[in-house]
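Reviewers of the previous submission asked for a worked example of the structure-prediction workflow described in the proposal, so we include one complete record here. The input consisted solely of the amino acid sequence. No template or homolog information was supplied to the procedure at any stage.
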Amino acid sequence: MTQTIRRSDNELQTNVTEELLYNPSIDAAQVGVSAISGVVTLSGQVSSLPERHAAKRSALRVWGVKAVADDMVVRDPGTSGAKDTDIAEAARQMLSWAVDVPADSVKVSVRDHTITLSGIVNWHYQREAAARAVMYLRSVRAVANTISLAVSAPQSGVKAAIEAAILRNAQLGSREIVVDVNGADVTLNGSVRSWAERHQAGYVAWAASGVTGVNNHLAVTS
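From that input alone, the workflow returned the following structure tokens.
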């Protein structure tokens, strides 16, 4: 059994490495890959925050990956990088231009090339849009998204709406997904075939009206 697990981990490490090499937006030579029982760890230095996210997404696409531990760091921009004040001003400008971020709803602070977003929006997609708007700025090493969702009265029929959305979603094998709703919090239990399905199920739950929290406990069985 131990030899079988080790062989599977070695195969997974090889497949993830090949997927990183296949992605032209990643300098795969700078990313270390290890795998233990389906959990892949990525390490090393990358040149930008988008490259770091691209590496993680690439690893999660590989069949058999149950989780990814991100130990990568964005390389220090050094003296050629923008100052924190420059990054903050650029981030505020990008947020003001983003059509999917409500005007004046998000505040920005920057320290050591790390952007922190705060404020309140109505929907989870708006929170994600704010982070996406600033992630591609030059010299940004990380984005801490502390934006909150506005609390509203619990919506009736949320459980049925989420279950129906899962059933009609072609990307999900819905038979193994169980939805529980407690006020504005949704919990997903059961199993899915891949990390992509797990992410998609969470996305479906977040889209329901009035939801302010999603606990995704779905297990990846591949």
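Residues 23 and 58 are 8 Å apart (CA to CA). We consider this example representative of the routine output the project will generate in years two and three.
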